[in-house]
Amino acid sequence: MNFKKELINWYSINKRELPWRATQNPYYIWLSEIILQQTQVKQGLPYYNAFVKQYPSVFDLANASEEAVLKLWQGLGYYSRARNLHTSAKYIANELNGVFPNTYKDLLKLKGVGDYTASAIASISFNEVAAVVDGNVYRVLSRYFGINTPINSTEGIKEFKALASSLIDTEQPASYNQAIMEFGARQCKPQSPDCNICPINDGCIALQKNLVNALPVKLKKTKVTTKYFNFLVCIDKDKNILFEKRKQKGIWQNLYQFPLIESKKSLAAEDFHLLNLESTVLDSVDFDYALYNEADKVHKLSHQHLYTKFWIIEVEQLPETAISIKSLKKYPAPVLISSFIEEFNF
């Protein structure tokens, strides 16, 4: 069986019609790959279309404010992708005169571009023989060749990259790379793949040894931590509200949120006095408060679970840093915050 030929044939028949497959423009390929990192196609497609419409060229993206880019990205999560996207756009526009890097090696110099993304852009846009290895590829290769080396181990990363590089079709690397990724996404799916209609099932070791559900092997994730967040929704008589840019490094860097106080446990309405207000605008001023949600709003991230309470605070007057409630939705915010804003319906 010709592994690469079968995959390319399958792809020609079964591939989804997606806008980034109708172009070799590296800007659009790069944009799609960054958006689709850790994001499924059905979720990422509207964002891709929105970015292409808002920023049709790398110059348009480079000239945008980071705040505008983050606002357009809002809801996708992993906001470092958006910040890196914007940084790299400015680098390409200003340092490279808008000329996109055209080799795997040079693409790796872009912030936020790793082995997989560089390989995808290099092969699809410039026909370079650079094998992609993403989650879909790991799954196809581990099952077909019966490899139980953990895919997120140093050894596994090297082993699968070497194998992928040995298999790539050197005459049509773009078609092969897209074929194996699409095959993993649509045929060799994570759960309950239909192996009966698989065009390469005759050679699949996982199928022969009944290991389809056991492969690929992945080392256990790092321990998930639990945090308790208390957001102070401070509103004054003039309908102004406090909304702050989160400047410290982290997943929500440069996004906006209400003043935040962490606590050691989930608090009830009668526990408000446990919050340390010394560093907030509420210190030494009169205010009324009410707990908006008795049950925690739980927001699960890859490395931490956030148990969140929103406290509605009414004061006579807020500092000049407060903004009008009418402008609240203009600012980029984490999904946890934007969902509350929609629900509260200011």
Automatic annotation (TrEMBL):
Names of required cofactors: [4Fe-4S] cluster
CDD domains cross-referenced by the UniProt entry: ENDO3c, NUDIX_DNA_Glycosylase_C-MutY
Organism: Winogradskyella echinorum
Record has 4Fe-4S as a keyword: yes
Details of cofactor binding: Binds 1 [4Fe-4S] cluster.
General function of this protein: Adenine glycosylase active on G-A mispairs. MutY also corrects error-prone DNA synthesis past GO lesions which are due to the oxidatively damaged form of guanine: 7,8-dihydro-8-oxoguanine (8-oxo-dGTP).
Leader sequence residues: none
Database matches in SMART domains: ENDO3c (SM00478)
Catalytic activity: Hydrolyzes free adenine bases from 7,8-dihydro-8-oxoguanine:adenine mismatched double-stranded DNA, leaving an apurinic site
Lineage top rank: taxon: Bacteria
Protein name as annotated: Adenine DNA glycosylase
EC number assigned by the record: 3.2.2.31
Family listed: Belongs to the Nth/MutY family.
Entry keyword set: 4Fe-4S, DNA damage, DNA repair, Glycosidase, Hydrolase, Iron, Iron-sulfur, Metal-binding
Domain (HhH-GPD) ranges: 35-186
InterPro entries, per the entry: A/G_AdeGlyc_MutY, DNA_glycosylase, HhH-GPD_domain, HhH_base_excis_C, HhH_motif, MIG/MutY, MutY_C, NUDIX_hydrolase-like_dom_sf
